[in-house]
Design a protein that fits this description.
Number of domains: 2
Strand order of the largest sheet: 5-4-1-13-14-15
CATH topology of the largest domain: Rossmann fold
CATH class of the largest domain: Alpha Beta
Number of helices: 10
Bound molecules: magnesium ion
CATH architecture of the largest domain: 3-Layer(aba) Sandwich
CATH superfamily of the largest domain: HAD superfamily/HAD-like
Strand content: 15-25%
Number of strands: 15
Distance between the termini: 6 Å
Length: 261
């Protein structure tokens, strides 16, 4: 099957830590040459679009800000549509810029929503308790991601998922998931390149969030054996990816093979 559009995870696929994955630049160049539109879909909730683009450029990759699709961008649209104009944000980094740019006011004073991403060291007892109290007051819980963990420089690190679960449990509520593996997130990203799910594939290093989520949304799933990839996660996954490749470097060969098949 010819793949006409791609969604590509960043962390663990295009880069690990501060270094690009070998072969990432030629793989992106191949997509451009072949006129295969793509979006980077990252659950990394520590950086705004501009910062992500600058970071990728510093690794020698050619990217445009518009090619980056993040949960913050999707969340801003979702909150505005729901008429929620104030939110208490529980994440770290400069992603608040994506929310403010969309006209949302960031406040911990009676917010209409609690927006939670990967907050790292900002997941303090105090911050979690404040968010818990906002939820009891009726604020909506909006999760930018519910990953269990990610691969940090020194090993696996807790992601937002465990903290989202804690707030859901404490406040007897359920979070609205905006990032991967939410089907709506994949659909919004595909709409921005004008490609239907049946003609698209998603490349990622997480067998649940990336390939599992994308396959549920009707896309092909391509698992890369870099980043957080682990054999036992693949063995116990409920859905087997359509393709498994060593790294993003093997993507051009896979696409060429499928185009010819
Ligand atoms: Mg990843």
């Amino acid at each position: 099957m010819r793949i006409k559009g791609m969604l590509i995870d960043l962390d663990g696929v295009i880069y690990t830590g501060d270094a690009p994955v070998p072969g990432a630049a030629p793989a992106l160049a191949y997509l451009r040459e072949q006129d295969i539109p793509f979006r980077f879909v990252s659950n990394t909730t520590r950086r705004c679009r501009e910062t992500i683009a600058a970071r990728l450029r510093s690794m020698g990759l050619i990217v445009d800000v518009s090619e980056i699709f993040t949960p913050a961008v999707a969340a801003a649209a979702w909150l505005s549509k729901k008429g929620y104009y104030s939110c208490n944000v529980l994440f770290t980094g400069d992603m608040d810029r994506d929310l403010s740019a969309a006209g949302l006011s960031l406040t911990s004073d009676d917010p209409s929503a609690v927006v939670i991403g990967d907050a790292g060291d900002a997941f303090t007892y105090q911050a979690m308790t404040r968010a818990f109290r906002d939820l009891l007051q009726g604020a909506a819980l909006v999760a930018l991601e519910v990953d269990r963990y990610w691969m940090g420089p020194g090993g696996l690190m807790l992601s937002a998922g465990p903290y989202v679960k804690a707030l859901e449990y404490a406040a007897s509520t359920e979070a609205v998931l905006i990032g991967k593996p939410s089907g709506a997130f994949f659909t919004m990203a595909l709409e921005s390149i004008g490609i239907g799910a049946a003609d698209a594939a998603m490349a990622g290093d997480d067998v649940i969030t990336d390939t599992g989520g994308a396959m549920q949304a009707g896309m092909k799933g391509i698992l890369v054996r870099t980043g957080k990839y682990r054999d036992d996660a693949l063995r116990t996954a409920p859905v087997r990816p359509d393709y498994i490749i060593g790294s993003i470097a093997e993507l051009p060969a896979l696409l060429a093979r499928e185009a010819g098949a």
